[in-house]
Amino acid sequence: MPFRPVSTVDALAGALRSRILSGELEPGTPLPEQEIAATYGVARPTVREALAVLVHEGLLRRERNRSAQVRTVTLDDLNDLMYVRRPLEDLMAKALAGKRVEAAESALAKLESLPEEAPWSAIVAEHMALHQALIEAVGSPRLDRLYNALAAETQLGVVRLRDVYKDRDRLITEHRALLDAIANGPAEAAQAAVATHLSHSCGT
Q: HTH gntR-type domain spans which residues (predicted)?
């Protein structure tokens, strides 16, 4: 299958997405169209479309007659996010107990192989890929849709983990333990490991 050419809109959205997920653009940061157009040397309609992509993804919020802003995820938001994620990931752990998920293992291997200077957005991407692979391995389209609805807030929540996981080895170790607990089973142990993992995330 040939690669689809990357449009200017996609490229700009990707550049801004990376800056948001690396934490370079902090929560609440406004993104004026004129300023972005000047910075990246693109037309304002292109900026408008790229911002619309990120608003749709949930990474930005926009109010009428105001610049788009990087979405803020508060501790209360994270608590509520975990409240909703726990039963979804509990279903995942119960369904996958005793199995290894190759795509999740691959995401963890990529996380381990990232260079020390890799931006946090690259770590966010592999973290999301790992959890998404586990959910998809269940084989439930409805579970996929429910989980994907939380993707943007989950990504922004992982951005907050920078201050907790200054040593990336800790993040890798926790996810290795999670994958091993799911693979080794039984279901109760896998579910307990998922609950513990999410409680760590909630505490950030």
A: 6-73
